[in-house]
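Holo prediction — iron/sulfur cluster.
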Amino acid sequence: MVALPNIPESHLRCLLIQPCFEQTNYWNFVESARAIGAKATAPPLGLMTVAALLPDEWEFRLVDLNVGPLSEDDWKWADVVCTGGMLPQQPGILELIAKAKADEKFVAVGGPDPTSQPQIYEAADAVVMGEGEMTIPMWMDSWRDGNPRGVFESVEKPDVTTTPVPRFELIDFNDYLHVGVQSSRGCPYNCEFCDIIELFGRRPRVKTPDQFIAELQKLYDLGYRGWVDFTDDNFIGNRKLIKPLLVALKKWNEEHNYPFVFSTEASINLADDDELLQLMQDVQFRYVFLGIESPDEETLIHTQKRINTVQPIIERVRKIYAHGISIAAGLIIGFDTDKPGTDGPMIKFIQESGISLSMVGLLSALPNTQLTRRLSKERRLIDSEHNWISEPGAVYELRSTESKDQTISGLNFVTTRDRVEIYRELRSIIEAVYSPEAFMARVMDTTKRMNIQNKHIPNGWEFRRMFKGFRTIAWRMLTDKRTRWLYIKNFIRAAMMGPTKFEYAHTIMGSFLHFDLQTRKILETLDVSIDYAENHAPYPRSIKDAKYQAAIASNSLPIAESCGGCSSVDSESVAHGF
Ligand code: SF4
């Protein structure tokens, strides 16, 4: 092991490593990135922020394994390795820990999965849990006291107004489809399945306008132009504080000739705030990801997502389109209250809403969520080795032994309905909504409704990427006989709507390359899951299964109900709003 200095404020070479995500999943638009000549979707904002929080005396290199392999030169160079990430990156993080231990290098891990399941990462020298603004100083203090090793945890959430500007200079912009920034953390709502509120809390914390503009200015000064994604948990979680930030952004945009277009993730009540929508349109927001989850009101109430029931979802979706903002949506099946034949209403909703980028997946009980705690009490959890955990209250670990793309993993619990029925419904939804005909119809529906007021003029670098993307999309659409005529038809119709709508329609049509590839993989995997559940699974196929009923009958533990209720806390947060 390299001898560490007694105080961390010494010259050290720190290698920041972003482990791989699955190369193929619905959430990783790797095909879209490749179409424009990039290698990955987004750079590791967390690691760039960590670099800014670590001592100024440290020297950094950042290696993103989604972009390229780890070189021997970078590895040998490092005194300290910092890595971490989310559940799908768990195998990669564990591999890096093992490699570091074998080569006697000091390794520290952090990020959402080490925070939710620190016990899995106990081989690391330091497990820096939670938000780095709190726990990196704790790690440094302990180091100064002579112990750089340990688990560093804080129950307190940091004040993000002191978060430094991420070290964007550590990445090569050419490698990515877009870059990320963050203006807030946390979400006021209380969805039962959500781990964000466990990790970042329900009191959204927002950066100051000046602080946030300094981040954009740094990107601008480094020469970046184009797509910037706000990686906030819920961009409108604190509307009172986000509006002044948007006002400042509007002014900065005007002064800098609109160098960026933006995307983010938000709750659907964005559609209920005209002022906010107008501001987002003015500053050139182009995409928003909405957690729609289900078109079924009973299910939304059951999963404590009442904000989605306040107004009809399709009306809200169309209002967002009318402000020039396109929608990607998360939809889930496998809730306790889903009814037989959930696929029909889900397909109808997706087509009527025109949401081209609909990520439909299976419900997953993530560690440390209200859902997992309830399912544990109800003795319904299933571990990564397919073992049914029939002991209530047992510590639950989710080992990422295979893909944790939510579309094809999930259902890690005994379902209320026969799980084979759920798999078949997901299969039917995916086949229907990602058929070329259905996808292309949604593209045109949205293109007609979108009211884009474009103020961003791409620079030469962006034009070259766009041209490359255009060529790749056109070539692949025209050489595939399933898409050829649909593409030509949409191409002509969109071209007649003007250049801005044409560019939008062509970009969204291009994302079909990504969805088509993933769909084929997901359908194959679902067939394997169906076969396994029908013929091999050791756990009950549903709560009606005799095995589950016998276990429940053996004592008086709570039995799964077909419908839960919303917590009063949720109602409170909706009533008060932010
Ligand atoms: S709206 Fe629900 S799912 Fe989305 S971040 Fe908030 S609590 Fe989580």
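READOUT: Confidence is low (pLDDT under 50) at residues 561-578.
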